[in-house]
Amino acid sequence: MSVNFSFISPKIIFGRGELNKIGKETVYLLRKKNLEYKNVLLVTGKYSLKKSGYLDKIRIILENDGINPYLYDKVVKEPTVELVNQGTKFALKGDCKLVIGVGGGSVMDTAKTIAGLVTNGGKVQDYHAGKEFMKPPLPFILVPTTSGTGSEITNNAVIKDQKLGIKKSIRGLLANTALLDPELTLTLPKENTAYSGADAFVQAIESLVSKSANFISDFFAKEAIKTLGETLPKVVKDLNNIELREKMMLGSLFDALSFSNGKLGAVHGFAHPIGIKFDIPHGLICGMLLPYVMDFNLKIDSVVKKYAWIADTFSAQNILSDYGDCPEKLPKENIEKARWAIEKLKDILSYIGIPLHLNEIGIKESDLEDIVNDTKGSSLENNPRDTNKETLKAILRNAL
Ligand SMILES: [Fe+2]
Q1: Measuring CA to CA, which residue among 315, 265, 331, 317 is closest to residue 294?
Q2: How far is ligand 1, taken at its centre, from the CA of residue 111, in Å?
Q3: I need a labelling partner for 252 at 20 to 30 A (CA). Which of 181, 227, 329, 369 fits?
Q4: Looking at the structure, do residues 237 and 125 belong to the same domain, yes or no?
Q5: Residue 3: inside a domain, yes or no?
Q6: What is the signed CA dihedral for 373, 358, 324, 295, rounded to 10 degrees?
Q7: Rounded to the nearest whole angstrom, what is the distance from the C-alpha of residue 201 to the centroid of ligand 1?
Q8: What are 248-284's pLDDT values in tens digits?
Q9: What is the enclosing helix (H) or strand (E) of 254?
Q10: Over 80: is that where the pLDDT of 323 sits?
């Protein structure tokens, strides 16, 4: 058997306390690009980084290394075209030569898009309409404060255009450095921990069975599923445990390395239109839909084998042995094991607080037509079993 793959990733710095390296890494990247000028754009959310004290800490570290941070702290919820266009103007006005994004997926998507727009010109809307980046972005460093979105590793950013009612990916935005310090996630509230963790879990499972899965994306997807399956139910009950937070961040990193190369599936195809129509957190809707899309994919033999692997792994790990409705005893046949894995995942998702029926979040039968009409894109195309409007509707109807 020959093994072929290509693999992309930013430089990764991982570990407790590694945030202290942010100044040195910034100076290194500026020097590497022969940029002596030290103005950098620091993109953050509005509140949590200030509240946790990390904003002051980051500013001090940067200033001690001779860097002037220009703070753009306007990110709330998911980034809009206006927010990103305004941030780009702010970066240009400050003559910033590098961008640092510290926060969740929204902050990182904002930071990376600004980095692209500063060097390439134009507005987000131009790139939504099909324009491509012809020049490299400003160098940028991403520092996640959640374990889940994987935005620090991926080369795309999702930006919302409220006027047009769309959420679209902009590509060609790979960070120079992803700096992952699990200590930054210690203050993440329970709900955000559960939702971002569910997102990572879903991404890893979708990537494992995607049409674009390959040797190396499978390797990372399996590591992610093992690590997240064991850790996610524990961390939501023990938020201050740094060892669990570290494992969540590692699991999320493995997941991001997998899906940024192996792509996603139908859950993520649905997630954008549902997220924008119903203003539902991304990780929540992904978690809710996972079991139903897995069930739909059971017609594909290679998928059944991979879901059976998940069952063997969870069984060996004895995950959630005291909770849930799924019997502990693992069946023998692959198809039964695959069904067992889906039931076990339902147990895990409910245990961390994800509802399993769309009607619990206000989605009704009459909404399905519109959702299906807006469900498209590369995630859907990478789902292992081909879909059409009828099958997409049937998946959602099962999930009601
Ligand atoms: Fe996701």
Answers
A1: 265
A2: 18
A3: 329
A4: no
A5: no
A6: -20
A7: 9
A8: 999 999 999 999 999 999 999 999 889 888 889 999 9
A9: helix 242-262
A10: no
Query: Residue 59 C-alpha to ligand 1 middle, in angstroms?
Result: 30
Cα(333) to centroid(ligand 1), Å? 31
The predicted structure's pLDDT at residue 97: 95
The model's pLDDT over 68-122, given as tens digits with 9 standing for 90+, comes to: 999 999 998 889 999 999 999 999 999 999 999 999 999 999 999 999 999 999 9
Identify the pLDDT of residue 296: 98
Instruction: Name residue 70's beta-bridge partners.
Output: 41
pLDDT of residue 89: 98
Task: Tell me which H or E stretch contains 101.
Answer: strand 98-103
Q: Tell me how far the alpha carbon of residue 268 lies from the centroid of ligand 1, in angstroms.
A: 6
Query: Residue 106 Cα, ligand 1 centroid: separation in angstroms?
Result: 12
Question: Separation of 196 CA from ligand 1 center, angstroms?
Answer: 8
User: Is 202 domain-assigned?
Assistant: yes
Cα–ligand 1 centroid distance for 338 (angstroms): 22
> How far apart, in whole angstroms, are the C-alpha atoms of residue 297 and residue 356?
18
The per-residue pLDDT of the chain, averaged, comes to 94
pLDDT at 138 over 80: yes
Query: What is the 65 CA–ligand 1 centroid distance (Å)?
Result: 35
CA distance 287 to 355: 8
> Domain boundary residue among 183, 210, 230?
183
Based on the fold, state whether residues 204 and 69 are members of the same structural domain.
Answer: no
Task: Indicate whether 230 and 157 sit together in one domain.
Answer: no
Pair (278, 159) in one structural domain: no
Residue 385 and residue 240 share a domain: yes
% residues pLDDT > 90 (the chain) = 86
Enclosing H/E stretch for 259? helix 242-262
Quick check: is 4 in a domain? no
Same domain (yes/no): 257, 297: yes
- Condensed to tens digits (0 to 9), the pLDDT of residues 19-55 reads 999 999 999 999 988 777 789 999 999 988 999 999 9
At 143, give phi and psi (nearest 5°).
Answer: -125, 100
**Domains of the chain: total:** 2
What's the CA-to-centroid distance between 283 and ligand 1, angstroms?
A: 6
CA of 388 to the centre of ligand 1 (A): 22
Cα of 39 to ligand 1 centre, how many Å?
Answer: 32
Domain that holds residue 91: 11-183
| Same domain (yes/no): 233, 146 | no
Task: Determine the pLDDT at residue 380.
Answer: 92
Q: Which of 167, 183, 199 is the last residue of a domain?
A: 183
Co-location of 385 and 243 in the same domain: yes
- 171 CA to middle of ligand 1, Å? 16
CATH number at residue 97: 3.40.50.1970
The alpha carbon of 24 and the centre of ligand 1 are apart by a number of angstroms equal to 31
Cross-strand partners of 160: 80, 167
